[in-house]
Write a structure and sequence with these properties.
5-stranded parallel β-sheet, 8 strands, Rossmann fold, 3-stranded antiparallel β-sheet, 7 helices, alpha/beta
Length: 215
Amino acid sequence: MGLRVDALSCARGGRLVLRDIGFAVPDGEVAILRGPNGAGKSTLLRALAGLAPHSGRVEIDGRVPDRDARSELMAYAGHLDAVKPQLTVAENLQFWADVLGGTPGQALATFGLERIADRPAHLLSAGQRRRLGLSRLLLAPRRIWLLDEPTVALDSDALLALLGAVREHAAAGGVIVVATHGPIGVPADVRVELSAEAAHAAEVSSDPFLAGAWT
């Protein structure tokens, strides 16, 4: 059945950044989140992952899972790559394999990390760190991928590897939600447009002082 979001609202730093967001992503489809900086794309992904407080419903197959259940169903790749700088590439992947399950071999090969497997992570370029962070998606099967600007710093070969992984995951019935400013090379089955102005207007109008109710 897939992922369904209904009337989701979320505040950050005392400011409403999402208001009454709703969309559905069936199994095997890709949803693209678009909007200007500050529109709440990252906040929305974090809310889906259970990392940000929100109101509204996030359903998977018609049920609202608790946080533990979400962690078994979702893989979240945010702006930070979750890389330990003192460990090598292989050691970072092995750490995540111990946490998530799976083996690092496929991830190393898919994202072209085999030849730098013994390199300490603090010596990696931005693109190499991004590839290492994204490779966690392949360690253990997670049905729903939440990707926040995944193409940042990737070269053409790494971008092709990512697009291939996304297509393969969708073909296997997975659900992918991607926040991005530009094209990612796969067709968007679902488009969600976010507006920073709409959320701000809703917040201001709900304040009785700012709305003029004090007069």
